[in-house]
């Protein structure tokens, strides 16, 4: 847990795209970060017992010290659980926010999040971005279910059907986004067009490969490609988080309203490339292939990312996601 305690010194403070006054102070944020860290440290012994019995990762027979593999199991479990809860909440938020605007006939509300998404009379581009958002919400809600080993083994039929819906939704999200970029282009211009188009192309590739290897019975490769697809699928969720932390930490250094500043150009690629790198760490740390040092590195990275995401999720859920979800599903 030392990495999370030291991470507090980095002063990673959360802010969304506007309404900075919703966050009371840096002191409150730091205290929240430490509270979350304290809770994680208290439940680690129980997670060890649970994960060590529930998530089996084969180890080389010549290995005596299994502590690095156990660390990978625990941190992987923590990361997956955190992503599941946070991305699921964001998926509901997407459906609630954009569906509410459609239901109320106020689709111009879409532009409050990212200017230029909706333009009256442009049916094809609006349909494309609408398909992208609807499919994206489904992806975030279903994706984490596919990572649960019990679902894959005990309920294989359910896993296959959810997988079909999930892959189709990923393809629709990619195609819808690419249609929007092709017809209208992004608000950020050429760099953002390239970054987001590459994101869509990679999602198409990973979706096709995930299904192709599953259909051919190559399940190890199928799992690897499915994890890469999931890493891409959560990109829209991390895009908001990255911007929130950066704006509060640096007061929006390098960010312009037209999303064509230096930081915006970096973010056109950063919201999905690091995800793929973390996924590769996770994939390559499994089984007998990884060295002890590599396993510890993977565990270290996943633990830090988990602390980062837990803190961000707390503030996003409190000030944005939950109010929108309750407003749509409970008090429409």
Describe the protein in words:
The protein has one domain (12-56, 63-330). The protein has twelve helices and no strands. It has helices at residues 2-7, 26-54, 67-103, 123-142, 149-154, 156-183, 190-215, 219-233, 235-250, 262-270, 273-284, 292-330. Helix 3 packs antiparallel against helix 4, helix 7 (190-215) packs antiparallel against helix 8 (219-233) and helix 7 runs parallel beside helix 10. The radius of gyration is 20 Å and the shape is globular. The model is unreliable at 1-27 and 36-64 (pLDDT under 50).
Helix content: over 70%
Assembly annotation: single chain
Total beta-strand segments: 0
Shape, per Cα inertia axes: globular
Helix-strand category? mainly alpha
Ends: how far apart?
Answer: 42 Å
Q: Output the number of helix runs.
A: 12
Stretches with pLDDT under 50, minimum 5 residues: 1-27, 36-64
Total domains? 1
Rg of Cα set: 20 Å
Order of helices and strands: HHHHHHHHHHHH
Task: Classify the beta-strand content into a percent band.
Answer: under 5%
Mean pLDDT: 76
Main sheet summary: none
